[in-house]
Amino acid sequence: MPGKKLYFGTNLKMYKGIRETVSYLCELEQLTADMDPENVQLFVIPSYTSLPDAIRSLRHKQILLGAQNMCWEEQGQFTGEISPLMLRELGISIIELGHSERRHIFGETNVMINRKVITGLKSGFTVLLCIGETEEEKNWGISDETLRIQLKTGLNNIPPDFNGRLLIAYEPVWAIGVNGQPASVEYARDKHELIRSTLCEIAGSAGKDIPLLYGGSVNPSNSDELILQPEVDGLFVGRSAWNASDFNALIRSAIHSAARKQHYT
Ligand code: 13P
């Protein structure tokens, strides 16, 4: 398949224990076995407790595994936190940082997230930085300012060798979860363009190659259109991905849609 690499991932949040995660992964791996990771990168971010079994359960390296959070320190008096060394020992590749639920339920700030991003990159992980404005910020007309602040603080002082190891997920907070309203395709397109130009401001030409994923109520009725938008390189999916065969169908349909775009451009 020619054109840009596409990314499809899911965050399992605080759902699925060890057994359910393993059976989900085995099914997803089987269903997607023909997808070439050179063109389509799949990833799953399960609970911490599922990670060791999740890693053992995958037979190929096509689906990458990630952790939902990480401490910025390697060790110390940080009760309840998980160190980058512990995650590296497990052999996972992605660290998700700054998810809206971490920011808004658990009070993570841009400064905390920036420390984690730096540690994650220095520890050799791929970092998936999540950003997004709240409904209030949208109503106040400051969505763009919020996104720029989250990017500029979140990526402040990152090591220069981040290339190929940084992904951004744009997830408007008001679009996430059972009470979320999916963003319109036009809205998502606008914000992805703003994010792209901000990344180029921060990282120069390397900003053009940082994959941007859209998340927040992605579902089979909006995924094909979303993936068609110029700066949308992938989809970060919650509920619509938690059944392996539904996720497989959504991914295949989006790939098909993206291939048509490349055919006509
Ligand atoms: P939903 O797709 O369920 O809205 O969740 C999106 C999300 O939070 C992915 O991290």
UniProtKB/TrEMBL annotation:
> Its encoding gene is what?
pgk
Question: Lineage of the native species?
Answer: Bacteria, Bacillati, Bacillota, Clostridia, Lachnospirales
Keywords assigned: Cytoplasm, Gluconeogenesis, Glycolysis, Isomerase
What EC number(s) does this enzyme carry? Answer: 5.3.1.1
> A GO BP term, please?
glycolytic process
Cellular localisation? Cytoplasm
Q: Species name for this entry?
A: Eisenbergiella tayi
> What is the protein's name according to its record?
Triosephosphate isomerase
Q: Which InterPro entries match?
A: Aldolase_TIM, TIM_sf, Triosephosphate_isomerase, Triosephosphate_isomerase_AS
**Where does the UniProt entry say this protein principally localizes?**
cytoplasm
Gene Ontology terms for molecular function? triose-phosphate isomerase activity
What is catalyzed by this enzyme? D-glyceraldehyde 3-phosphate = dihydroxyacetone phosphate
The annotated pathway is: Carbohydrate degradation; glycolysis; D-glyceraldehyde 3-phosphate from glycerone phosphate: step 1/1; Carbohydrate biosynthesis; gluconeogenesis
Q: Which family does it belong to?
A: Belongs to the triosephosphate isomerase family.
